[in-house]
Amino acid sequence: MFKIVNSGPGFGKAPAAAILSIILLVFGFSAGYSQNFLCGDVNNDGKININDMSHLIRYLYKSGSAPLPAVAAGDADNNGQINVIDVSFLINAIYRGGIKPCADGYIMLEIGQSKIFGPAGETIGFDSILTDNRCPIGVYCFWEGEATTRLHLWTPDSGTIYFSAKISGLTGPQYSWGHFPVEVGNYTVTILDLSPYPDYAHPEIKSNRVYLKIE
Q: What is the rounded distance in angstroms from the CA atom of residue 112 to the CA atom of residue 126?
């Protein structure tokens, strides 16, 4: 199920946009997002950049046109909803080297969630965020900051191992030092992203989702 979340001041004032959204929702895509579009390319120009953020903001808060060619193109964090968190996700991906919209090859966990990742039932869980002093979007900082999460990993041989893993406020290929792999038993766990990224304009939105890889 896909859900459009719009709490902006212009919500409810643009029936045409709402109708277009419903049409695209029904006919534009189905579960699994199997359609041929680039996730995060909200204006359908083949690129992901600041124009897509602007398009999504206008859609959510200023009665702008829906993401093209399907509403799901605006679901940057691939969680089945379109809201301000997707805007934050795009900002983090474009300017801070964060994980790409709808990227593959990672495990996504929300706080309190666990997932099986191994053939013998090996499980990884996300317990909490211990600290998060990453430099917020919209603020100039002398240090990019970092965040520390509390995770746990279960294996048949070792049982449950609790550990912490952190990530810098700057990540991506150009900031290879921004990731801190942690050796846990026979596995290496690396935090790829912690989302939503802190945003000075939206202090009410707290990070609650971690993206990680296990090797």
A: 6
Q: Tens digits of per-residue pLDDT, 120-138?
A: 899 999 999 999 998 888 8
CATH superfamily for domain 3-95: Dockerin domain (1.10.1330.10)
* CB crowding 20-50: b at 16 or more within 10 Å, else e: bbeebbeebbeeebeeebbbbbbbeeeebee
Question: Closest Cα partner for 180 from 169, 195, 194, 190?
Answer: 190
Distances (CA, A) of 193 to 61, 75, 152, 203: 26, 17, 17, 19
Within a 13 Å sphere around the CA of 145, how many CA atoms are in the beta-carbon half? 17
Query: Could you tell me if 106 and 65 are in contact, meaning their C-beta atoms sit under 8 angstroms apart?
Result: no
- Give the pLDDT confidence of 157-174 residue by residue, as tens digits: 999 999 999 988 776 544
pTM of whole model > 0.70? no
Select from 123, 88, 117 the least CA-distant residue to 193: 88
Could you say which DSSP state residue 8 is in? S
Residues 43, 46, 50, CA angle at the centre, nearest 5°?
A: 55
Alpha-carbon gap, residue 167 to 185, rounded angstroms:
20
Residue ranges of the domains in the chain? 3-95, 107-214
Strand duo 81-82 + 3-4: pairing: parallel
Closest C-alpha among 145, 123, 128 to residue 189: 123
